[in-house]
Amino acid sequence: MSFGLGLGTALIQSGGISSPLAISGNVLWNRADLGLHTATGISQWDDQSGTGDANKNFVQAVGGKQPTRNVADAAYNNQSTFSFASSGPQFMVSGTWAVPPPVATGTWFLVGNQDGSASQQAYLDGITAALLRLDNNNAGLGASQLRFFLSAAGLVAGGLTNSHPSIIAVQSVAGSASSALFVNALTAVATGNPGTSAPTGVVVGANVSGLVPLNGKIAELIAYNRILAANEMALVFAYLSTRYGITVGP
Predict the structure, then answer these.
(1) Which one of 53, 90, 118, 202 counts the least CB within 10 Å of its CB?
(2) How many folded domains does the chain comprise?
(3) Backbone dihedral angles phi then psi of residue 120, each to the nearest 5 degrees
C-alpha cells in the first residue's frame, strides 16, 4: 500500500501539522512532555485529545513499575521520551474508556524503540482478554520482527529490529485483510487480517498482565477513530518525523 512519492515527500519536507489534533477523529494523544504526574517515576500520563474522558489517562501507582522520563533525549532530536525497563517491569494502564479504543476501525501511531534483544516485548496491549497488541516479535521467535494483532496471527513484518527510534503506524480494521502496518515509511510493511477484538482500555509498556514488558522507550502515542486518508497519514508522519528527527521514506 503506497501513498505516492509526490504528495508524501512534499508533506514531510514541509513539516506537516503542528499537532495530531489538526486532523479530525483524534481520540488519544499522549506525548512525553505533556500531562505528566511524577512520583518515583511517571505515575500518571494524561491524554491530550480533549475528549474529556479521564479514564484514558495512563497510571501506575507502584514506584518501581513507573517509567522514567528523559527530558531531552539526544536519540530523539532532544525531545522528551519515557524509558521502560523490563526488570520492573515498568508499564502504565488506562481505565475503562467511555467509548472503547478504536480497533474495529482506527489508525494508531507510536514513536519508540526497544533494545533489539530476542526477548518478546510489547509496546501496547488491550485491557480484557481481547488483545490490542503491538510488539517487537512473533511469540518470542525472533527479535527482527514487528507485529500487530487483535486475536488472530495478525500482521507480521520481518527484518525490523526497531532498536532505533521508529515511527510505527497501524490501520486497524478488525476482521479485514485491509489492515496495514507501517514503519518509518508511507508504504505498508505488512497487510493482513488481525482478527477481532473489543478491548476496554489500553496498557502501554507491557501486556495486560505486565508480562512481555518493553525494554526501551516511548515518546508519543496517537489514535484516531477512523482510517486516515493517504494525505492525512502523510501529515502525521511529517509531524512526527520533524519533531523526532526520524527519516521517513515513501
Answers:
(1) 118
(2) 1
(3) -70, 135
